Amino acid sequence: MERKWTEEVLGTDKPIIAMCHFMALPGDPGFDKAGGMEAVIKRAREEMLALQRGGVDAIMFSNEFSLPYLTDVRTETVAAMARVIGELKSELEIPFGVNVLWDPAKSLDLAVATGAKFVREIFTGVYASDFGLWNTNCGAVVRHQHEIGAEDVKLLFNIVPEAAKYIQRDDISQIAKSTVFNCKPDALCVSGLTAGAATDSQVLETVKNEVPDTIVFANTGVRINNVKEQLKIADGAVVGTTFKRDGKFENPVDEVRVKEFMDVVKEFRATL
């Protein structure tokens, strides 16, 4: 049987990609000007190391606290993210990806600059969202990927964007099928409504059944009490809020929670 790219790039079947959420960056409304970039780097280093020691398979760096998000991200955000990753990279021992919320071209730029193995983004669709009318241009982004030499960067397509809804399209199975046919994603990500909201297992199963030959990730709300159920369907999971202290989005990563979660994952993978 042909190996999945997740095994080759991330080192295992059913991988857990952990989110390392950067605090607000220069230009963001919540940026801590007194603490500056040093405070951002300090928090990111602590969380990255806690995730790594906790046993996750890969890490995805994102500007999660750059609220409210832009769909055309400014240069200062990408520059700040590149600096943080550059400062941490020598201590990173597992594969990593990046997500510049919500700008796929800038995510690819950051990936090339830092050596990231994958990006997760909204590549397709037109949405009514909390950020206004949200349009995409997958063809232009994929051409940009090739122009900047990012052909080997894996593209994780989030097809159920958080805080957004497809305009005039509701059938998730048809969205999955047409996205795979037209755009050839490396993986599809299925989300709940917001960060930390559980991915509906029925929706996840519908997507996987429609595109069985495509990698499908549970993208939000995977917890220690549902991870086995989710991984029976999905090819892996992206996990963020679950790893935070008390399971709250705004809190720092809790290494004990990470280890407990990964023990359950490893126990499940041993049965495969």
Automatic annotation (TrEMBL):
A Pfam family annotated for this UniProt entry: BtpA
InterPro entries: BtpA (IPR005137), RibuloseP-bd_barrel (IPR011060)
Family: Belongs to the BtpA family.
The protein's name in its UniProt record: Photosystem I assembly BtpA
Organism classification: Bacteria, Bacillati, Bacillota, Clostridia, Eubacteriales
